[in-house]
Amino acid sequence: MIPTMTYEEFKRQLGKAGLTAKDFADLVKLSPNSITNYAQSGVVPPHLAIIVALMGEMAENSLDFRLVLSKIKVEQTKTRGSPKGHFGGSKVTNESGRELI
Description:
The chain contains six helices and four strands. It has helices at 7-17, 21-27, 32-36, 38-41, 46-60, 65-70, and strands spanning 5-6, 43-44, 86-87, 90-91.
């Protein structure tokens, strides 16, 4: 079982790696908001915890994790959410039935 990593520990590991949350998001092709949103719950998902722990350890041992990551082709994830004026796939309207944008 993988123990959970707190967001504070996540930030500490980012610091060891010399990264900000935005830098990390860019490296792993995620939205910076996706990363900083974990501050609300106080924990990060195990896959991100593993990645950042390895980056922190590599940096601490003078190993260039950026070089390793540059060899992996990863596409940018698409931002989730719905278009403006919709909620859960349904149009949002006012009392008279007019669509709100």
